[in-house]
Design goal:
The complex is a heterodimer of chains A (196) and B (370). Chain A is built from seven helices and five strands; from the N terminus they run E-H-E-H-E-E-H-E-H-H-H-H. With 196 residues, chain A is α/β, with parallel strands linked by helices. Chain A folds into two domains: 119 residues, Rossmann fold (3-Layer(aba) Sandwich); 55 residues, Arc Repressor Mutant, subunit A. Chain A has a five-stranded parallel beta sheet. In chain A, strand 1, helix 1 and strand 2 form a beta-alpha-beta unit. In chain A, helix 6 packs across helix 7. Chain A is elongated. The relative contact order of chain A is 0.10. In chain B, helix 1 crosses helix 9 and helix 4 runs parallel beside helix 5. Chain B has two domains: 174 residues, Rossmann fold, CATH 3.40.50; 145 residues, Rossmann fold (3-Layer(aba) Sandwich). Chain B contains ten helices and 14 strands. In chain B, strand 3, helix 3 and strand 4 form a beta-alpha-beta unit. Classes of the chains: A alpha/beta (196), B alpha/beta (370). Chains A and B meet through helix 1 of A and loops of B.
Chain lengths: 196, 370
């Protein structure tokens, strides 16, 4: 069954960062119709002000390092970027901030779509971070897997059988193959140390 | 002041009855404004024949001719075909039909019922009738998908079991399996978002194979059934509940006259009434603005409520939708009888930002298990 993304933002608060009156007015009005309390803001954002918001709508044209009270790419809430200039430099800055959804200033009527995409993208970030950490951990463990296979070759006969044996150990212990390799190497070191 | 108005309605093809009704409303209003000496409007009529490919070219031709305002499109699909042309050539579409919401384009004025005017009151009504099981069936495009998604969410939240949900291709009359499923499921209520020939043949088939259903008021619930094509349903429509912003019993002399003069079936429907009102609002706004420039006309139209043949209509300047008073009506003997009506117009909520769940939640069935 299809899982629908968050699509009702009533009761939430958005900080709107834009220096020009017209886009600011249009975003604020549209937020109001969607049940969102929009707080216009100019200049840099401090941590206390940001804490009052559930999302930020920002002007990419005037965005700059130091605009937010957190390191680039680590916003604690969804970011919706309003695209004016399409210059690579401006878009690069927005990408660096990990803006979650982009909305051309000429298409403010589609704010709802940008809100849905931004919230869904933001919600997936922890899972993506977890997957990235897992991949990094697996990569770091590759050398241990090779060492463990080599350790097992004398008793298993060849590399394929040794790898199969390592997989079986991982399955029995209910750990990843990398963790099984690390455990086996540690055990091997202990045995060797004990044997001396 | 003279004004040219493009009228893009499919008055032939699979949903011709709806297009004919809307066109009749527009022509009726144009005639009435002429008779009153208010404004001369030159209608420029195009009939895409229900062929989706015809809408874009029709809109493009009209805008190239210098027409700035178009009243038309029946299905959401056709509206979405026209919008890119309006954006490119700076036109304004006055859309007079009920639709599924989730749109707010700067080149459209939405004058038909939004989901808080049709699905929400209809599902609230179902929840108050003591029904336990519902079945959902719709045409396989955005109207069917969105209205039934919302209906499913609201019915389930009200404790009503959704026994099945099926979509049939646009224009298809191959739905024997759906009728079988409905009969086997014991569903007391069918939410029906089929359009055109699918709707007509489905109601006939279900009614023929399950005669007793006609005796249950609300056994079939529609979010867009009007008098425009009610005659085609015959006795199969008896007991059908429809939600909308207008039914024939509320038609005043202006709409009755427009229907008699211009509608092939002689009947006033929401399509006819909304198209009539659209022309009135456009005419008044153009006169106030002193131009047919789309932005100026829209600003004038949304600045204050407009007096129309269906009453005063206010258009939200931000969301561009009309505030309407929803009604629920039961079909009996080829006519709709309004059984509930909102006391005042309700602003459209196209993104359903301000809706809560169904007003009534049915208590779960508890029984002693031995």
């Amino acid at each position: 069954m299809t899982r629908f993304p968050l699509h009702n933002f009533a009761g939430r608060t958005a900080i709107v960062l834009h220096p020009s009156e017209e886009p600011m007015r249009r975003v604020v009005e549209r937020c109001d119709r969607l049940g969102i309390r929009a707080l216009p803001h100019s200049g840099e954002l401090d941590r206390d002000t940001a804490a009052a918001a559930d999302m930020i709508v920002l002007d990419i044209d005037t965005g700059h390092d130091g605009l937010f009270p957190w390191p680039a790419g680590q916003a604690p809430m969804p970011l919706i970027g309003l695209v004016g200039s399409e210059s690579p430099g401006r878009l690069a800055w927005a990408l660096g901030q990990a803006v979650d959804a982009y909305l051309p200033l000429s298409a403010l009527g589609n704010l709802f779509s940008a809100l849905v995409v931004a919230h869904e993208t933001f919600a997936r970030k922890p899972e993506r971070s977890r997957q990235e950490r897992e991949i990094a951990r697996q990569r770091a463990g590759r050398l241990d897997v090779i060492r463990a296979v080599l350790l097992l070759v004398p008793e298993c006969g060849d590399e394929a059988s040794a790898l199969k044996q390592l997989r079986t150990m991982a399955m029995v212990e209910q750990v990843s193959i990398e963790e099984a390799a690390t455990l086996l190497l540690a055990k091997g070191r202990t045995s060797r140390a004990g044997g001396r | 002041m003279a004004l040219r108005l493009g009228l893009i309605f499919s008055t032939s093809g699979s949903y011709a009855a709806l297009g004919q009704s809307a066109l009749a409303g527009a022509l009726g209003a144009i005639s009435a404004l002429h008779r009153a000496g208010t404004i001369e409007i030159e209608p420029v009529i195009r009939d895409p024949g229900g062929d989706i490919a015809g809408y874009e070219s029709a809109a493009s031709d009209l805008l190239d001719m210098g027409v700035r305002h178009i009243l038309g499109a029946i299905t959401s699909w056709s509206r979405k075909e026209i919008i890119p042309v309006l954006e490119r050539k700076d036109g304004l579409l006055w859309y007079p039909c009920p639709y599924e919401g989730f749109e707010c384009n700067d080149h459209v004025v939405y004058l038909g019922a939004a989901p808080n005017h049709h699905v929400v009151p209809a599902t609230d009504w179902i929840a108050t009738q003591g029904m336990r099981r519902a079945y959902l069936v719709g045409s396989n495009y955005v109207w069917g998908w969105e209205t039934l998604r919302l209906a499913r969410e609201r019915l389930q939240a009200a404790g009503i079991e959704v026994m099945g949900e099926r979509y049939v291709p646009l224009g298809s009359t191959d739905h024997a399996h759906v009728v079988d499923e409905i009969r086997a499921s014991g569903a007391e209520c069918v939410c029906n978002s089929l359009i055109g020939p699918s709707n007509v043949s489905f109601l006939h088939d279900l009614s023929t194979r399950d005669l007793a259903r006609r005796n249950w008021p609300g056994h079939m619930v529609s979010f867009n059934q009007t008098e425009a094509d009610l005659d085609a349903l015959g006795p199969a429509a008896d007991g059908l509940l429809s939600a909308g912003s207008f039914f024939e019993e509320d038609a005043g002399p202006a709409l009755v006259q427009a229907a008699a003069a211009h509608a092939p079936n002689g009947r006033a429907s929401a399509f006819l009434a909304n198209a009539y009102a659209a022309v009135e609002i456009l005419a008044a706004a153009a006169l106030r603005a002193g131009t047919d420039a789309p932005r100026a006309v829209f600003a004038a139209a949304s600045r204050a409520p407009s007096t129309t043949a269906v009453g005063e209509i206010r258009i939200d300047p931000v969301m561009r939708h009309a505030a309407l008073a929803p009604r629920l009506a039961l079909a009996e003997g080829g006519r709709f009888r309004v059984i509930e009506r909102a006391p005042a117009a309700i602003p459209a909520d196209p993104y359903l930002a301000r809706q809560t769940g169904c007003a009534t939640r049915r208590k779960p069935d508890l029984r002693i298990v031995r």
